[in-house]
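Why ATP-dependent helicase DinG? Reviewers of the renewal asked for a concrete example.
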Amino acid sequence: MTPPATASATVNSLLDIVVTSLGGAPRRGQQDMTSAVFDAMEGHHPLIVQAGTGTGKSMAYLVPAVAHAVATNERVIVATATLALQRQIMTRDLPLLSQALQPHLDRQPDVALLKGWSNYVCLHKAQGGYPQEEATLFAPDDPVPAAGTSTADHPDTAEVESLADQMRRIVTWARDTDTGDRDDLVPGVSDRAWRAMSVDKLECIGSSCPLIHECFPDNARKTAFDADLVVTNHTMLGIAASGSAGVLPEHDVIIVDEAHELADRVTSAATVDLSAGSIDKAARLARRRGGRVTDALDDASAQLALALINQPDQTFTGGLPAELHDAVSAVRDASRLLVSELKPEKKDDTADAGLKQAQAAVLSIFEIAERMTAEDTSADVLWCARPRIGSDTAPPRLYAAPLSVSSLLAQALWPEHTAILTSATLAIGGNFDSAARTVGLAGVDDLVTKDVASPFDYPRQGILYLARDLPVPGSSPTTDDQLAHIEELINAAHGRTLGLFSSRKAAQRAAEVLKERVSYPILLQGEDQLPTLVRLFREDPQTCLFGTLSLWQGVDVPGDACQLVVIDRIPFPRPDDPVRSARTKAVAQSGGNGFMTVAAHHAALLLAQGAGRLIRSTDDKGVVAILDPRIATARYGQYLLSALPPMWRTTQKATAVSALHRLTSRSGD
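Here is what the prediction returned.
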């Protein structure tokens, strides 16, 4: 039986079928969200919907998405920010949904996963089709890793391996994998090893490749362009918004999950950098792979290196200063000529892999230099900085990032498409204005916003402890007072603690000190792959897990394993973050409150995500402890608190400790 395509009630009946097949019942708010999503698709109007933790929002948008795609033959794109959610949708949610709805739809939906080109291993490169040299295996200015690289240096590598060993493992895996997707390679490898065995779209020789029919990214793209529903990531949306619309198949609807992350992910995708090292790499490829003379580009690289050598870390207002502008202009002009010289004479010449690689590298340099020397750079933030990773003496680089991505999204993604954005954290104090403005939907007349409440009883399930009497955190990673607080709380909880820290140094110091003070195991992010650490944390109720931003979002540990979430400080953006600083200044210049619009909003969303790690099911109970008194004493504290789940609040440490003691006694520990 085929449901009427226009009946949202019928789509909710499909949701009932799916949820019942999983042994449950629709959750509070889930049907409301399903109806809102379906109505947005039918009415072709944008929707921003906040769905509290536990709502079951993925099924709430996937059911109407599948029904819409099958009934109308119009493609739906679903974009997520995190690998965990992407994997959940592809390996669990969609297969279960398709099986449950099979008797109720005209046909089974075709679904596909689509990622950027370099996320897939290049078979031609793995088989030696692209010439390799050691210098091209590394990012410019990156230190070459020694044999026996540790997992602390590369958290995505599950075992201690040399670069050569990692590359050999990729080659072996490439012969057997069905997907070629980096995320399917377990244990993972370092970025440097993966770069050696993958290509980006510009480097790919396309139809000239002798292995084109086996090409993993090309086949993934073809599958996606024929699918009803395509699952992708925010970065792909960022690439599309930056002018490469062809990276996505034609579509009618875009559903953005984890939408609070969208602006940052699009900003990252649109950020570029330029250094003498990156120029030298491109010139080297042009000489060795393209057989071209690169004297002009070499001279321009030297000019830029000289101009950068004494540059302090700083943001530029009104474009690059004269010396840097002249140097980057020389790079632009030299690379433009070299791009023309590197054009392959025969498009079907299968021996042109190295030439295509060289042309791609030089074209990238040209496009970056042209952007940095444009007559009007007011849409970009330009700055000079030394890389944070690597040697303290590493030469500085120039960077360019969009001042705002709202116009990019408004002009490139939303027109002629139905935009549906959802997350557990979009409204601050029930207000969607900031979220709409950030993603380019402010002022859209037919925009619908909806807040779907969580099914959790937060005042009865959770306590929010605000450490009002602690000193305000200073420049030190973690203070002695904070460490004493964490020690007492961990002992009361008998482990069971997720520690969310504002910096890697803070997490490391807390782990080092507390491993000596408490008898419960403490795992530290970076000691192993993150999924492995989360699994160990979940399996041993007395274990603690400490880490930084990757743990603030996406970690789902329901049950007794996590009964205490500790947050060391309000997660304001770094004061030296050039993009957010420029955005703050721009808001202030237009008459707004830059601090509240940018820094406080960023902190509020992260706090909400972090606090949301505690209550993951209707049976969970515990304490969120924020060890930064400013949330209770500063004027902006109430704004931050309005973003958090409505847990019962206290400023008394004894109250939090007593509650944790009661919880552990009930657990039998």
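The mean pLDDT is 88. This is the kind of structural detail the renewal will allow us to pursue systematically.
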